[in-house]
Amino acid sequence: NENNNIPNRLLRSRKISAVSKFGAIYYVKHLQRLTPLKYLILRNIDKRNRDNIAMASSAPLVMRLVGSSIKIAHRAGNIIRDVMRRGDLGIVEKGKDDLQTEADRSAQRCIVASLSKLFPNATIIGEEGPSDLNVTEDWLITESNIDFLKKHKCPDAFVNLKESDVVIWVDPLDGTSEYTQGFLERVTVLIGIAVNERAVGGIIHQPYYEHDTGDIGRTIWGLHGCGTGGILPVEPPSDRFLVTTTRSHSNSIVQSALDAIAPDEVLRVGGAGYKVLQLLEGKAHAYVFASAGCKKWDTCAPEAVLEANGGTLTDMLGRHYQYGKDVSFPNSSGVLGTVAGVSHDDILAKIPDNVKQAMSMY
């Protein structure tokens, strides 16, 4: 009868927990002894999972992109921690001051394989180049963050978005040097969503962020017209002007820009994602990097998150970068980010001509 089909539906579902599957198996083996209460529990679990699957599949594309990327970035963060626990980082030097580890490679495989399965017609560009998409089942994340889908409405601008309009920029491990040198709190996973050349959505996951509860990992998201989540932004101090910049890629032009802005304190850290989080956490007013050292996968997600919270991220000449599928990868004109409430134009006006000339040569 219809009741007897319930455990079969449960067992076939890949979206239910191990506890749910155990309950379904118990029901099959002990059908005659199943109490009405146990039957109702199983039925409610089945209905809840079917409702969640229906919501995830029917939500507008941009909401599914963000909701799925939240889950995928979290899984990539687990992979990054797993590689570190094993101890063999598998470091490869891609170029001068440009390292790659097994964590970079494995996290990208997880991210790109999962996104490719869910959104086959979107363009996906990862820092580590083409990836082997034949991954183990536990690396293939196909569910979405239901809490995000339930609580947020799709912005009108994206209601009719098509997959072919989307470019996804992936930095599987932003801050590789920090990772290899033990500055683990600065490591992030970045998934940026671009539409019509602009960064509109982003996920920043911190695999090593430690909550007061002892839980590890934090995922921040941002979407234009929808706001941000996963973080409670804090205003920077009003009595000091703080700037965050590169830890390991400084030069005379970078220093010239910093000197002209004259901050009270300069924070030197690695990772574009982490620098933008410093802005959102009130630890800095501006992110200043007058150099060609970072690339589109470094800034797409951070730009979207920062601007979804009212801030601004441009090059050192005040121009937004373009994130279409055919653009060149380097951010040749540097990066200037400002938190909400700080005048981006005022800082741009302080940048000296020699810096502007150096940034406009590319």
From TrEMBL:
Keywords on record: Hydrolase, Lithium, Magnesium, Metal-binding
Source superkingdom: Eukaryota
Signal peptide positions on this chain: none
Binding site for Mg(2+): 127, 171, 173-174, 298
Obligatory cofactor(s): Mg(2+)
Short name of one Pfam family: Inositol_P
Similarity annotation: Belongs to the inositol monophosphatase superfamily.
Protein name: 3'(2'),5'-bisphosphate nucleotidase 1
